[in-house]
Amino acid sequence: xxxxALGTALDWPDAKKNAQQVREWGIKQLLEIWNKAKxxxxxxxxxxxxxxxxxxxxxxxxxxxxxxxxxxxxxxxLAASPELAEGGGGVPDLxxxxxxxxxxxxxDEPAAKRRCVASNGPGASNGASAxxxxxxxxxxxxxxxxxxxxxxxxxxxxxxxxxxxLGVEPDMKLRRRIAKDHMRPDEYPITLTTFPRIGxxxxxxxxxxxxxxxxxxxxxxxxxxxxxxxxxxxLAANIRWRRGRKVQVNVPVFHDRNTPIPWxxxxxxxxxxxxxxxxxVRTGGAAPDDFIHMDAMAFGMGSCCLQITxxxxxxxxxxxxxxxxxxxGPIMLALTAATxxxxxxxxxxxxxxxxxxxxxxxxxxxELGEKPLKNxxxxxxxxxxxxxxxxxxxxxxxxxxxMDPNLVVDEDIKAQLLEGGMDDLLATHFAHLFIRDPIxxxxxxxxxxxxxxxxxxxxxxxxxxxxxxxxxxxxxxxxGWRVEFRPMEIQVTDFENAAFSVFMVLVTRAILSFDxxxxxxxxxxxxxxxxxxxxxxxxxxxxxxxxNPFPARRARGLNGEGDTSSRPGSRPGSRAPSRAPSRxxxxxxxxxxxxxxxxxxxxxxxxxxxxxxxxxIVESYxxxxxxxxxxxxxxxxxxxxxxxxxSGKLATAARWIRDLVDAHPSYKHxxxxxxxxxxxxxxxVIAVGERELSGQGFAGLDVPDLNRxxxxxxxxxxxxDGINQ
Length: 725
Prior knowledge:
alpha+beta
């Protein structure tokens, strides 16, 4: 498969023997990149989005909905499209031979998450469709871990022009339409985070395969559910092999009024004896009461999400973006909550994050603290898929008290980076990432170190799946320093996905324009990530957040204290805020006084005599720049959607799904999601997607409570053609 045809993957015992060599070569490649690119400058902030789809088979006559395992055939059809290729799109993994340098690619980023903001630079962005001046560049498609998944990105990065922001939604619709056009009539690309009944007894894939297999060794899913390229099953097998047992993805079940107490997962076979790991559910505590038990990487990496990558003008700006967006991760996770069902049961959580974290957790019992350290070097508090553990900016407002006091760092690697000229903060960041072992190693990559490649560095960098990722330029230095924002859940419609994408772009621009400061202790960000998992966290939880994000010289006016032109919770001032000094003063005072607990509504919309709100800050930013009336009106539509999600006027996708289940005539209020409930849910999602693509609006569409999800929004200025029109 082109990019994925990489060579001979090592099983874990051999990979373990070569792990240190990969680390050492990875550090040498990192220092080579550092020395080439540390002074690199870019003129414009480019960005890109990544949308992931489940592909399902659905017909009116068949009572079952299934996951289609035809990823390879669909991608082949897309790659063979001359129109797509001529328009700048296609499937790079199949159309180009990238050679051994592709070892940088990881399992949930199989081709070019680096290419989504990568190509070409300022002036080459994908805004033609918004401006109407030329044909847009067609989208690019990529494989994913699950054989039932697709990823789509814009063919070129988005640029800085505000009108380009209006091209995002049409481009997302175009991607969905093109994907659908290359599928069978009964196949649909849908943007649900997870397939509700994946792993349930019976046939849930097309074609059907029985559960288990030598790679995943799962009770619930077959090996064939994963992309068959050797990278993916090797990743799953080596994670299991390294940790010494299967992954344990246990999600608390939602206790409805007829759910038994205690609840025992009825799908778990405690008498299975296919693999040595099957003993874990009998004696190892792998399947505790009141938890939905899952045992394979597919239950995590088979989830869909929405990710945004920003290119900074230089490394200093990139490091600042990384730090300032980090505290926003849990807030956006709660705001986009869309994952209330696992393996056919309602869960007592609303988001995917911890489930993916557990699905790729390769830590040994010693690293987990279950056994005394003997063979391993450290106790590691987090999975390799987790929230951030570091701040990296050179901003003088970054206080030592914000850092994790228990951060695990490879001191030898840190010393090498410091000796190579890297500063302490960034050296600490990478030395923390490099405490992990490389999971997938190809024999051919061990023959010779090539400093004109980044394969060994990316082997470790890209398998640290944190909620933010700081991405150096590639070896050829062709693109800039990038920051990836990873926590958001995928939404049901392209309108919603565009709204959240555009919102994050505007927040990022406001951060840079107003020199905003969202620092809180990194351990509080960890706590916030946990709180974001709660059912209806967007309404019921409180999150640690900085009280005053403004630089000292402007804090008084924009925080509503002593400035009658600015009212907290509304637009913070009618005049454009002036830029803060480039080197703000080092803060003083107790760190605990800098932040407090707030609701998502208060963080997004503001609160009286308190935090002004992200949307009012964005509105103030838009007031300060030259945006035409039509563009501003369209952008306000996106901001209103997000504002109403935060306030509870509109439901999250998770709440909408829960309400649909609760009102279904077949639901017995016992937490069980049957085939007919799943079919009606996915049928509703397909109907919404088809109507959205038609451009006819949602009026008259027979989908329960759609007005609670979308209100009267269609995506156009003023919300015309909405449900209630």
